Predict the structure of Methylglyoxal synthase.
Amino acid sequence: MPTRIALVAHDAKKDALVDWVVRNAPRLAKMEIVATGTTGGRISAALPELHVKALKSGPLGGDQQIGALIAEDQLDALIFFVDPLSPLPHDVDVKALTRLAIVYDLPLACSISTANAVLDHILR
Ligand SMILES: O=C(CO)COP(=O)(O)O
């Protein structure tokens, strides 16, 4: 079964996540990738050859869709580049998503260095 990874980034962090995906594209290409709507669109625009399943936008239920995948044991890792400097209208969804990752002990990365570590870990 392929490794399953979810990719999510807040607006201020989308460039960083797209850069990270571009740098790691050969390794990610072997995985099943899901993303929240806008993040998925940005990744697909940068790397059209990478297959990314885009869910709803985060504030419109995408974060909760990813949370449901975690609860159903459908993910091996979550890369979630959170913006720590801006108030977010859907803060409760952000908290719920990170909370579920912790509840289910899912490898969770919120920054470039931890994303590198998680990618190494799930490909071991
Ligand atoms: O808001 C998000 C995560 O909380 C991300 O959603 P988008 O990828 O749709 O911008």
About this structure: The domain at 4-122 is CATH 3.40.50.1380 (Rossmann fold). The mean pLDDT is 98. The helical segments are 14-23, 25-28, 37-46, 62-71, 91-103, 112-122.
